[in-house]
Every structure is written in structure tokens, then in C-alpha cells.
Amino acid sequence: MTEIYDVLIVGGGPGGLAAGVYGSRAKLKTAVIEKGRPGGQAATTEELVNYPGYFRDATGPQLMTNFREHAEHFGTTLIRDTIVDMQLDGAVKTLRGKDGAEYQAKTVIFSPGAEPRTLDIPGERKLRGKGVSYCATCDADFFEELDVIVIGNGDAAIEEAEYLTKFAESVTIIVIHDEGILDCNKASAEKAFENEKLHFIWNSVLEEIVGDELVEAVRVKNVKTNEISELETNGVFFFVGTIPRTDFLKGHVALNQQGYIITNELMETDVDGVYAVGDARVKFLRQVVTAAADGAIAAVAAEKYLAEMEAFNTQVLQADKPVLLLFWAPQLQESVDAISQLERVLDGNSAFKQAKLDTYRNKKTAAAYNVQQIPTVLLLDHGRELGRVEGAAADEQLSALLGSYK
Hints:
Elements: E1 4-10, H1 14-25, E2 30-34, H2 60-73, E3 77-80, E4 83-87, E5 93-97, E6 102-110, E7 114-116, E8 132-133, H3 136-139, E9 147-151, H4 155-164, E10 170-174, H5 186-194, E11 198-201, E12 204-210, E13 217-222, E14 228-232, E15 235-238, E16 242-244, E17 274-276, H6 288-317, E18 323-328, H7 333-346, E19 353-358, H8 363-368, E20 376-381, E21 384-390, H9 395-403
Helix pairs in contact: 1-2, 1-6
């Protein structure tokens, strides 16, 4: 029989591994499916000094090893596979690996990550992490009082270039357009032109990054004259966008125009029981620390979702007779009074069962039945609504509700 996990996480980066820690520690049967080495992009970043608590000799590989060991310590299972297809509807979701293996779970957390858009410039791949960077927030302090080049002139590129000027001696932006023309918004452009540390090379593109062990220079081509010039520099920052690894999710969960997964603050996608975390979702800041936070939130949300579904299944769907279900809130006296009122109305009537759900802890169920007032009593038969009484009610109203059952 196929094993059914409580939480199945697709992607073993910081978001996925953090979700594994929280899921397993909550005593949920949790697994992480990762096609390669756990850790994602962070595992390829040699120097990583902006994760809180890790700043002395910190490396991405070591931090991600700690994440993996932490998840395994609490019981997370690591599976090596690539997910190629899935069925996400229903109480149990099914995912299929590239060799045909099937995985089933009550909840799924996607953490596929994103990758910087590369231009395949000669020397770019060779010197990545050795002067070539895609993240000013991550690496700017390594270039204090040094000279760097920026590739890109959109909003993100100009904002990141401005940030780099806090550290670097000079920041030179290579721009393909004529002098004075940038792709960013007007306000950012005006601010950039006023920054004495920012310099521009117009009508030009990057041809090559030069260096053996570290970046030493760049070769720049003027697109109008075809002249190639060499400029000494210590670093090259690319800001030409990122690409979310979400092609396999198209048609399964909602994506925005750029392919990023749309979630709410609980990391919920538009599919019940399905969550998304990390760089592949729509968010403000893509960093290891925010991915880890996403993973923690998603796992806790999944735990609450499972508890809610279990309570509803046990009390309502599996009941052998119709159920009077009370949606209540313990802080509201009239809903507390409704509990004893239901017991009084049902006294001696064995044809019905009584159940109650805390509305705050069972928001999805309340929303599914469009519960607007607290308290609200529903008469349900295996989940099908037969009638309701909203707000504080007299005994006669509840008795009439029972009498309506045929």
C-alpha cells in the first residue's frame, strides 16, 4: 500500500527543510522530496553571513547541512526524486516521480525555489561566487571600498546599485540604451543620476568577465561602434530578473504572470491543503531567512488544517446520524450558553448527535458553510446542510430545526 504522509514537501531548500523541522516536530508524518542535494541555492553560496546567528566563518553548505540534520533529527524522511505530475484535488493528494513512483499526502508544501536569470556571458559561470553575484543584500559587504559593475537597468537593478554604493568605492552600470535612458521608474532614475558613486557606460553590453580565481576585469562592447574596451573591476552584479522553477505547477496552482506562486499570509495556495514557500512564491524579499520563515508558517498552517479536517470528519462526516453542529467562540458568552442550550433541546432525543467547532480554529469549515454569526447551529447529514439557526436562538427555534428533518 502507498504510504500516506501528513505533510509532503517538494523541494529541499531552506524553506522546505524548515517546513520539515516544524512538521516533524509536530509529530506529523513528514517527507521532503528533493531532486538533488538538499539546501537549494544556499548550499552553493560559500559565504553566507546574513542569516541571524551565523556570521563567524559561515558558509551556505554548512548552514544547509545543519538544516537537513535538524529536519532528520525530528523524523523528516528525505526522498531523492523529481516530481513530474500531480493530482491535488481531494483529501489525499497524489504526486508522481519521474520514474513512476507515487507519493500520497494529506497536505503538500511546494518549495521549488527560483534561480537568477543568467546571460551566459563568458566567465559568468566560472566566476560565480568569486566576484560574480546576483544578490546585493547577500554580498555587498564583501566589496567594501572596491569597484563593481552592475548589469541591468530596470527598477531592481537601479535599487540594488544604489544599495551597493553604501559599500563599494564605485558602482558602474552598463546600459544598452542611449545616454540618459533607463528602464527603471523616473524617480529612481533621477536619484541614481544624483548619486556621485554611480557611473554609467551607455550604448554598451557586457562581452566577457575576466579573471582566474577572482574577477579582475570586464570587456565591454559599444553597440554602436562595436568597439571593445576593458575595465578593471572587483565584482560583477547581475540584476536581470529571476526565474521561478514552477513550470511543473502550471495548471495545478495559481501563478502570476511571471510564474511565481500566489499565496496568502498562511502560505496557502488556491488549492485546499496545498502551500508554497520560499523564492518561488510572490513575495517582497527572497533570502534564506524569509524562506525559513515561510516554511515554518506553512507547516504550522498545515498542522492546523489537518486538525480541522480531522475534527470535522470525526464529528460530522463519519457520524451515523444527523448532527447539530454548533460554531462557537469560547470568549463569547452567548455562544457558551448555546452549548448547554443544545444539550437541553436534545435531552432524550437519540436521533441526533451534537458537535461543536471553535470558529477561530476552524475557519475553513466555517467559511465553507458561510457562517457569518457566532453562534450558528447547522443541521447536517454527512456534511450536507439541512437547515440552520444563526445567532442567539430560543429553544423553540432549535426544536423547529430538528423537526424539519425528514
